[in-house]
Amino acid sequence: MKISIERNLFLNSLSHVQNVVEKRNTIPILSNILINSNEDKVILTTTDMDISITEVINSSVIEQGSITTSAHTLYDIVRKLDDGSSIELISNDGNKLSVRSGKSKFSLACLPKDDFPKIDNAVLENEFSISSSELKKIIDKTKFAISSEETRYYLNGMYIHIIDLNSQKKLRGVATDGHRLSKIEIEVPKGAENISGAIIPKKTINEIRKLLDEAEGDVFISLNESKIIFKINNIVLSSKLIDGSFPEYEKVIPQNNDKMISFNTKSLYEAVDRVSTVSSEKSRSVKLSIQKNIVSLSSTSAETGSGAEDIVVEYSGEEFEIGYNAKYLLEIIGQIEGDNVSFVLSDSSSPSIIQDPKDKESLYILMPMRV
Prior knowledge:
- By secondary structure, the protein is of the alpha+beta class.
- The chain has six helices and 25 strands.
- 17% of the residues lie in helices and 43% in strands.
- Helix 1 packs antiparallel against helix 2 and helix 5 runs antiparallel to helix 6.
Protein backbone atom coordinates (compact mmCIF):
# COMPACT_ATOMS: atom_id res chain seq x y z
CA MET A 1 0.00 0.00 0.00
CA LYS A 2 1.23 3.50 -0.87
CA ILE A 3 -0.83 6.64 -0.30
CA SER A 4 -0.15 10.35 -0.52
CA ILE A 5 -2.55 12.50 1.48
CA GLU A 6 -2.82 16.09 2.63
CA ARG A 7 -2.17 16.44 6.36
CA ASN A 8 -5.17 18.65 7.30
CA LEU A 9 -7.64 16.42 5.46
CA PHE A 10 -6.16 13.30 7.05
CA LEU A 11 -6.09 14.86 10.53
CA ASN A 12 -9.71 15.92 10.33
CA SER A 13 -10.82 12.39 9.43
CA LEU A 14 -8.59 10.79 12.05
CA SER A 15 -10.07 13.10 14.68
CA HIS A 16 -13.52 11.73 13.84
CA VAL A 17 -12.71 8.02 13.90
CA GLN A 18 -10.14 7.81 16.70
CA ASN A 19 -12.64 9.04 19.31
CA VAL A 20 -14.40 5.67 19.22
CA VAL A 21 -11.24 3.80 20.23
CA GLU A 22 -10.89 3.26 23.97
CA LYS A 23 -7.58 4.28 25.53
CA ARG A 24 -7.19 0.86 27.13
CA ASN A 25 -8.23 -2.27 25.30
CA THR A 26 -7.99 -5.89 26.35
CA ILE A 27 -8.35 -6.86 22.67
CA PRO A 28 -5.33 -5.35 20.84
CA ILE A 29 -6.96 -5.11 17.40
CA LEU A 30 -9.64 -2.78 18.83
CA SER A 31 -6.91 -0.20 19.52
CA ASN A 32 -6.20 -0.07 15.79
CA ILE A 33 -7.57 1.80 12.84
CA LEU A 34 -8.24 -0.08 9.61
CA ILE A 35 -6.97 1.81 6.57
CA ASN A 36 -8.26 0.61 3.19
CA SER A 37 -7.08 2.24 -0.03
CA ASN A 38 -9.05 1.81 -3.24
CA GLU A 39 -8.37 3.71 -6.47
CA ASP A 40 -8.56 7.38 -5.39
CA LYS A 41 -10.19 6.84 -2.00
CA VAL A 42 -9.01 5.95 1.50
CA ILE A 43 -11.47 4.37 3.93
CA LEU A 44 -10.77 4.72 7.66
CA THR A 45 -12.59 2.46 10.15
CA THR A 46 -12.51 2.06 13.93
CA THR A 47 -14.71 0.14 16.34
CA ASP A 48 -15.09 -0.79 20.00
CA MET A 49 -17.55 -3.58 19.06
CA ASP A 50 -20.49 -1.45 20.23
CA ILE A 51 -19.87 1.54 17.97
CA SER A 52 -18.10 1.63 14.63
CA ILE A 53 -17.30 4.60 12.44
CA THR A 54 -16.19 4.65 8.81
CA GLU A 55 -15.09 7.68 6.84
CA VAL A 56 -14.20 7.91 3.15
CA ILE A 57 -11.70 10.55 2.03
CA ASN A 58 -10.20 11.41 -1.35
CA SER A 59 -6.45 10.97 -1.75
CA SER A 60 -3.77 9.93 -4.19
CA VAL A 61 -3.57 6.13 -4.05
CA ILE A 62 -0.36 4.94 -5.71
CA GLU A 63 -0.68 1.31 -4.57
CA GLN A 64 -3.87 -0.17 -3.17
CA GLY A 65 -3.85 -2.15 0.07
CA SER A 66 -5.09 -2.47 3.65
CA ILE A 67 -3.39 -2.28 7.03
CA THR A 68 -4.24 -1.72 10.69
CA THR A 69 -2.18 0.32 13.12
CA SER A 70 -2.62 2.13 16.45
CA ALA A 71 -5.34 4.75 16.00
CA HIS A 72 -4.19 7.07 18.79
CA THR A 73 -0.49 6.87 17.84
CA LEU A 74 -1.21 7.66 14.18
CA TYR A 75 -3.49 10.54 15.19
CA ASP A 76 -0.86 12.02 17.53
CA ILE A 77 1.83 11.81 14.82
CA VAL A 78 -0.33 13.48 12.18
CA ARG A 79 -1.49 16.12 14.67
CA LYS A 80 2.14 17.15 15.31
CA LEU A 81 3.15 17.36 11.66
CA ASP A 82 3.30 20.73 9.91
CA ASP A 83 0.05 22.35 8.89
CA GLY A 84 -0.64 21.84 5.17
CA SER A 85 2.13 19.29 4.68
CA SER A 86 1.88 16.17 2.54
CA ILE A 87 2.00 12.72 4.14
CA GLU A 88 3.02 9.40 2.62
CA LEU A 89 1.73 6.12 4.05
CA ILE A 90 3.65 3.07 2.85
CA SER A 91 3.33 -0.58 3.81
CA ASN A 92 4.94 -3.38 1.84
CA ASP A 93 4.15 -6.42 3.97
CA GLY A 94 1.36 -5.35 6.37
CA ASN A 95 3.66 -5.73 9.39
CA LYS A 96 4.92 -2.14 9.44
CA LEU A 97 3.47 1.18 8.34
CA SER A 98 5.88 3.89 7.26
CA VAL A 99 4.64 7.46 7.81
CA ARG A 100 6.70 10.13 6.06
CA SER A 101 6.30 13.89 5.88
CA GLY A 102 9.11 16.32 5.07
CA LYS A 103 12.09 15.28 7.20
CA SER A 104 9.94 13.24 9.60
CA LYS A 105 9.82 9.44 9.33
CA PHE A 106 7.95 6.98 11.55
CA SER A 107 7.61 3.20 11.46
CA LEU A 108 4.49 1.88 13.18
CA ALA A 109 3.67 -1.69 14.15
CA CYS A 110 0.65 -3.28 12.49
CA LEU A 111 -1.70 -6.14 13.28
CA PRO A 112 -3.22 -8.43 10.62
CA LYS A 113 -6.08 -6.73 8.80
CA ASP A 114 -8.00 -10.02 8.80
CA ASP A 115 -8.23 -9.78 12.61
CA PHE A 116 -10.16 -6.53 12.38
CA PRO A 117 -13.91 -7.03 13.03
CA LYS A 118 -16.16 -7.07 9.98
CA ILE A 119 -18.39 -3.99 9.91
CA ASP A 120 -21.84 -4.26 8.36
CA ASN A 121 -23.26 -0.86 7.38
CA ALA A 122 -26.11 -2.18 5.27
CA VAL A 123 -29.27 -0.07 5.54
CA LEU A 124 -31.65 -1.38 8.23
CA GLU A 125 -35.39 -1.91 7.90
CA ASN A 126 -36.54 1.54 9.10
CA GLU A 127 -34.93 4.41 7.21
CA PHE A 128 -35.56 8.15 7.36
CA SER A 129 -33.73 11.46 7.10
CA ILE A 130 -33.61 14.41 9.47
CA SER A 131 -31.95 17.80 9.10
CA SER A 132 -28.65 18.10 10.91
CA SER A 133 -29.96 21.17 12.77
CA GLU A 134 -33.01 19.28 14.06
CA LEU A 135 -30.93 16.32 15.22
CA LYS A 136 -28.48 18.69 16.88
CA LYS A 137 -31.36 20.36 18.72
CA ILE A 138 -32.77 17.06 19.99
CA ILE A 139 -29.36 16.00 21.29
CA ASP A 140 -28.47 19.34 22.87
CA LYS A 141 -31.78 19.56 24.71
CA THR A 142 -31.50 16.08 26.23
CA LYS A 143 -27.97 14.70 26.46
CA PHE A 144 -27.00 16.51 29.67
CA ALA A 145 -29.69 14.54 31.53
CA ILE A 146 -28.48 11.08 30.41
CA SER A 147 -27.50 8.92 33.37
CA SER A 148 -24.02 7.51 33.88
CA GLU A 149 -25.11 5.08 36.59
CA GLU A 150 -24.32 1.60 35.29
CA THR A 151 -26.80 -0.22 37.52
CA ARG A 152 -29.69 1.41 35.67
CA TYR A 153 -28.22 0.82 32.25
CA TYR A 154 -31.53 1.55 30.49
CA LEU A 155 -31.10 5.22 31.49
CA ASN A 156 -27.62 5.42 29.91
CA GLY A 157 -28.95 6.81 26.67
CA MET A 158 -31.42 9.07 24.90
CA TYR A 159 -34.81 7.52 24.21
CA ILE A 160 -36.44 8.39 20.89
CA HIS A 161 -39.97 7.32 20.03
CA ILE A 162 -43.14 8.38 18.26
CA ILE A 163 -45.98 9.85 20.33
CA ASP A 164 -49.53 11.02 19.61
CA LEU A 165 -49.91 14.59 20.81
CA ASN A 166 -53.32 16.17 20.30
CA SER A 167 -54.06 13.66 17.52
CA GLN A 168 -50.79 14.55 15.81
CA LYS A 169 -47.70 12.35 15.69
CA LYS A 170 -44.41 13.76 16.99
CA LEU A 171 -40.88 12.42 17.36
CA ARG A 172 -39.84 12.80 20.98
CA GLY A 173 -36.39 12.58 22.57
CA VAL A 174 -36.14 11.96 26.33
CA ALA A 175 -33.33 11.56 28.83
CA THR A 176 -33.36 11.21 32.60
CA ASP A 177 -31.04 10.19 35.40
CA GLY A 178 -33.71 10.09 38.08
CA HIS A 179 -32.83 13.57 39.36
CA ARG A 180 -33.80 15.54 36.25
CA LEU A 181 -35.61 14.84 33.02
CA SER A 182 -35.50 16.52 29.64
CA LYS A 183 -37.82 15.99 26.71
CA ILE A 184 -38.28 17.58 23.32
CA GLU A 185 -40.64 17.03 20.41
CA ILE A 186 -40.27 17.75 16.71
CA GLU A 187 -42.34 17.02 13.65
CA VAL A 188 -41.99 13.38 12.61
CA PRO A 189 -39.41 13.11 9.81
CA LYS A 190 -40.78 11.49 6.66
CA GLY A 191 -40.27 7.73 6.91
CA ALA A 192 -40.03 7.67 10.71
CA GLU A 193 -43.77 7.40 11.39
CA ASN A 194 -43.65 3.74 12.42
CA ILE A 195 -40.28 3.37 14.14
CA SER A 196 -40.14 1.55 17.45
CA GLY A 197 -38.73 3.22 20.53
CA ALA A 198 -34.92 3.14 20.68
CA ILE A 199 -32.45 3.95 23.46
CA ILE A 200 -29.31 5.37 21.86
CA PRO A 201 -26.22 4.98 24.12
CA LYS A 202 -24.59 8.06 25.62
CA LYS A 203 -21.25 7.45 23.89
CA THR A 204 -23.01 7.22 20.53
CA ILE A 205 -24.91 10.45 21.22
CA ASN A 206 -21.66 12.23 22.12
CA GLU A 207 -19.90 11.02 18.96
CA ILE A 208 -22.78 11.98 16.70
CA ARG A 209 -22.97 15.41 18.30
CA LYS A 210 -19.30 16.06 17.49
CA LEU A 211 -19.86 15.09 13.86
CA LEU A 212 -22.88 17.36 13.57
CA ASP A 213 -20.71 20.44 14.12
CA GLU A 214 -19.33 19.89 10.61
CA ALA A 215 -22.48 18.46 9.04
CA GLU A 216 -24.51 20.10 6.31
CA GLY A 217 -27.90 19.09 4.98
CA ASP A 218 -29.69 15.94 6.09
CA VAL A 219 -28.58 13.04 8.26
CA PHE A 220 -29.77 9.63 7.07
CA ILE A 221 -30.77 7.24 9.84
CA SER A 222 -31.76 3.60 9.68
CA LEU A 223 -32.53 1.34 12.63
CA ASN A 224 -34.02 -1.90 13.82
CA GLU A 225 -34.63 -3.33 17.29
CA SER A 226 -30.94 -3.68 18.15
CA LYS A 227 -28.93 -1.32 15.94
CA ILE A 228 -28.90 2.23 14.57
CA ILE A 229 -26.88 3.67 11.66
CA PHE A 230 -26.21 7.35 10.99
CA LYS A 231 -24.90 8.57 7.65
CA ILE A 232 -23.49 12.10 7.73
CA ASN A 233 -21.90 13.22 4.47
CA ASN A 234 -19.04 10.74 3.88
CA ILE A 235 -19.17 9.28 7.41
CA VAL A 236 -21.14 6.25 8.58
CA LEU A 237 -21.53 5.60 12.30
CA SER A 238 -23.27 2.43 13.47
CA SER A 239 -24.09 1.54 17.04
CA LYS A 240 -25.83 -1.06 19.12
CA LEU A 241 -28.94 0.16 20.90
CA ILE A 242 -29.42 -0.33 24.63
CA ASP A 243 -31.36 -3.54 25.19
CA GLY A 244 -33.88 -2.56 27.82
CA SER A 245 -37.16 -0.79 28.51
CA PHE A 246 -37.12 2.94 29.14
CA PRO A 247 -39.23 3.76 32.23
CA GLU A 248 -42.71 5.28 32.03
CA TYR A 249 -41.28 8.74 32.42
CA GLU A 250 -44.58 10.58 31.87
CA LYS A 251 -45.68 9.50 35.34
CA VAL A 252 -43.08 11.80 36.94
CA ILE A 253 -44.20 14.88 34.98
CA PRO A 254 -46.38 16.89 37.41
CA GLN A 255 -49.91 17.71 36.29
CA ASN A 256 -51.11 19.86 39.19
CA ASN A 257 -48.30 22.32 39.87
CA ASP A 258 -49.96 25.70 40.48
CA LYS A 259 -47.21 28.16 41.46
CA MET A 260 -45.56 29.91 38.52
CA ILE A 261 -42.46 32.07 38.77
CA SER A 262 -40.91 33.92 35.84
CA PHE A 263 -37.16 34.61 36.03
CA ASN A 264 -34.87 36.51 33.73
CA THR A 265 -32.80 33.66 32.29
CA LYS A 266 -29.43 35.43 32.36
CA SER A 267 -29.94 36.90 35.84
CA LEU A 268 -30.96 33.53 37.31
CA TYR A 269 -28.06 31.66 35.70
CA GLU A 270 -25.47 34.17 36.91
CA ALA A 271 -26.94 34.36 40.42
CA VAL A 272 -27.02 30.57 40.85
CA ASP A 273 -23.49 30.35 39.48
CA ARG A 274 -22.20 32.97 41.93
CA VAL A 275 -24.02 31.78 45.04
CA SER A 276 -23.15 28.10 44.49
CA THR A 277 -19.44 28.94 44.51
CA VAL A 278 -19.43 28.38 48.28
CA SER A 279 -21.61 25.26 48.25
CA SER A 280 -20.07 21.99 49.35
CA GLU A 281 -18.60 19.79 46.61
CA LYS A 282 -20.76 16.90 47.80
CA SER A 283 -24.21 18.50 47.77
CA ARG A 284 -23.75 21.45 45.38
CA SER A 285 -27.01 22.76 46.81
CA VAL A 286 -28.63 26.16 46.49
CA LYS A 287 -31.76 27.28 48.34
CA LEU A 288 -34.42 29.52 46.81
CA SER A 289 -36.53 31.48 49.31
CA ILE A 290 -39.51 32.60 47.25
CA GLN A 291 -41.45 35.73 48.19
CA LYS A 292 -43.65 38.16 46.28
CA ASN A 293 -41.61 39.33 43.27
CA ILE A 294 -38.31 38.47 45.03
CA VAL A 295 -36.35 35.23 45.22
CA SER A 296 -33.44 35.02 47.66
CA LEU A 297 -30.77 32.52 46.64
CA SER A 298 -28.44 31.18 49.31
CA SER A 299 -25.82 28.52 49.82
CA THR A 300 -23.97 27.44 52.94
CA SER A 301 -20.99 25.20 53.53
CA ALA A 302 -19.39 24.33 56.86
CA GLU A 303 -15.97 24.31 55.18
CA THR A 304 -16.27 27.39 52.95
CA GLY A 305 -18.85 29.81 54.30
CA SER A 306 -22.05 31.19 52.84
CA GLY A 307 -23.35 33.27 49.96
CA ALA A 308 -26.64 34.97 49.15
CA GLU A 309 -28.20 37.06 46.40
CA ASP A 310 -31.67 38.48 45.69
CA ILE A 311 -33.18 38.60 42.22
CA VAL A 312 -36.39 40.21 41.00
CA VAL A 313 -39.04 37.84 39.60
CA GLU A 314 -42.67 37.78 38.59
CA TYR A 315 -44.54 35.96 41.36
CA SER A 316 -47.56 36.76 43.51
CA GLY A 317 -48.25 33.49 45.35
CA GLU A 318 -47.54 32.27 48.86
CA GLU A 319 -44.03 32.25 50.30
CA PHE A 320 -42.05 29.01 50.47
CA GLU A 321 -38.54 27.58 50.12
CA ILE A 322 -37.11 25.00 47.74
CA GLY A 323 -33.61 23.62 47.18
CA TYR A 324 -31.87 22.31 44.06
CA ASN A 325 -28.59 20.79 43.02
CA ALA A 326 -26.90 23.87 41.54
CA LYS A 327 -25.10 21.92 38.80
CA TYR A 328 -28.33 20.34 37.58
CA LEU A 329 -30.14 23.67 37.74
CA LEU A 330 -27.43 25.46 35.75
CA GLU A 331 -27.42 22.75 33.07
CA ILE A 332 -31.15 23.16 32.56
CA ILE A 333 -31.10 26.97 32.56
CA GLY A 334 -28.25 26.74 30.05
CA GLN A 335 -30.69 25.15 27.57
CA ILE A 336 -33.14 28.06 27.75
CA GLU A 337 -32.72 30.24 24.68
CA GLY A 338 -35.34 32.87 25.53
CA ASP A 339 -34.94 35.91 27.79
CA ASN A 340 -37.20 34.41 30.45
CA VAL A 341 -37.57 31.02 32.07
CA SER A 342 -40.69 29.73 33.85
CA PHE A 343 -40.71 27.55 36.96
CA VAL A 344 -44.02 25.82 37.69
CA LEU A 345 -43.96 24.45 41.24
CA SER A 346 -46.18 22.71 43.76
CA ASP A 347 -44.22 22.60 47.02
CA SER A 348 -40.68 22.14 48.35
CA SER A 349 -40.64 18.36 47.88
CA SER A 350 -42.39 17.85 44.53
CA PRO A 351 -40.80 17.87 41.05
CA SER A 352 -40.46 21.28 39.40
CA ILE A 353 -41.32 22.02 35.77
CA ILE A 354 -38.88 24.35 34.02
CA GLN A 355 -39.65 25.67 30.56
CA ASP A 356 -38.87 28.37 28.04
CA PRO A 357 -42.25 30.14 27.50
CA LYS A 358 -41.39 30.57 23.81
CA ASP A 359 -40.33 26.93 23.32
CA LYS A 360 -43.35 24.72 23.92
CA GLU A 361 -41.60 21.69 22.39
CA SER A 362 -39.05 21.39 25.23
CA LEU A 363 -39.71 20.61 28.87
CA TYR A 364 -37.44 19.99 31.87
CA ILE A 365 -38.21 18.36 35.20
CA LEU A 366 -35.95 18.87 38.22
CA MET A 367 -36.27 17.07 41.53
CA PRO A 368 -35.74 19.33 44.56
CA MET A 369 -33.36 18.49 47.38
CA ARG A 370 -33.42 19.19 51.08
CA VAL A 371 -31.25 22.15 52.08
